[in-house]
Specification:
158 residues, alpha+beta, Aspartate Aminotransferase, domain 1, 44% helix
Length: 158
């Protein structure tokens, strides 16, 4: 469900209490581990963590008006979601993440960068904190740009 909230506080206020508590707990882990320079705000109708235009003026290639997304939190109709875009743009980081998650014994319900969950206990918060902390902004931008170049090459050769 895409929210029309303009601030993180408004977004949290419109959630049912149980979901607000879960999203807020993950938010606290993200903020405690987020690298220098990333910013929190509303993006694509959810709480987003991004590289600001002041650092990366090109913005997100799909919508250059948007800052480059790094992570996100959302309350969907049937579940909640935690998005880690750095997993999608860096296969080594994704491999580390999957292995580290598996060691917790918790089930991972993940798409390309979206981790779906029903309750906070479904998530190993320490792994989420580690995943956020291990990607500094410069490394994230470099991986993102490398991925863009690869996809542009692939399009030209097909």
């Amino acid at each position: 469900m895409i929210s029309s909230a303009c601030t993180v506080e408004e977004y949290l206020a419109e959630l049912p209490a149980d979901r607000r508590a879960a999203i807020q707990a993950i938010r606290e882990v993200i903020l405690a581990n987020l690298g220098k320079g990333f910013e929190e705000g509303m993006q694509y109708g959810m709480i987003g963590y991004h590289v600001p235009h002041s650092v990366y003026p090109a913005g997100y290639h799909c919508d250059p008006q948007q800052p480059l997304p790094f992570a996100g939190l959302a309350s969907q109709k049937n579940h909640m979601s935690f998005y880690l875009h750095c997993l999608y743009s860096d296969s080594k980081h994704e491999e580390w993440f999957r292995k580290r998650w598996a060691k917790t014994g918790k089930k991972l319900d993940m798409g390309k960068s979206c981790i779906r969950f029903k309750k906070l206990d479904d998530l190993p918060l320490d792994v989420i904190g580690e995943a956020i902390a291990r990607i500094p902004m410069k490394a994230y931008i470099a991986a993102y740009e490398a991925g863009l170049k690869e996809s542009q090459k692939a399009r030209k050769s097909s």
